[in-house]
Amino acid sequence: MIKELVKKSRSVRRFYEECPVTKEQLAELVDLGRLSPCGANKQYIKYVTVCTPEKNEQVYRCVGWAGYYKDWDGPEKGERPAAYIILLRDKRIQSTLTVDEGIAAQSIFLGATDMGLGGCMMMNCDRKKLMEYLELDEDQFSISMVIALGVPKEQVVIEEIKEDNVVYWRDENAVHHVPKRSLEEVLIKQE
To answer: pTM for the complete prediction?
Structure first.
């Protein structure tokens, strides 16, 4: 069951924007992040959720979409995320980025997939502008990443990597292809 959930949990960059993600769903996803393991049990990750059109637009203007798509600035109106979860580092507890943000984000991502939602984890964002939009104290918080969420509007398929090319791409039907290395390539040794 977990393997199917992981396989189904792909980065999605186009959504049915008109399909809402509720505050209750967002709180449930944040709870998954909160319950995730954290080094030394510091629990320094804090969250901001956004699901109103006005705030969504502000967050959208701060994030970078799909680095491999050089001629694409992100989803157009009507295909943008219905919600966002912004992961913050409480600098009073932990000053540097750690693996813990990724662990919490993956828990959130898997929970979103289980809810029938799709998402995209983004570390490419204008943190200064986003901190201003969210009215956060930069002496206390630092933005770790932004997770865009919504009902997926695109199909994503995993395929075998060819010629060591890891670049994801879209075909003529707008299906998003994600090349993955084989298990035999990544599993170096079993003793």
So the answer is: 0.93
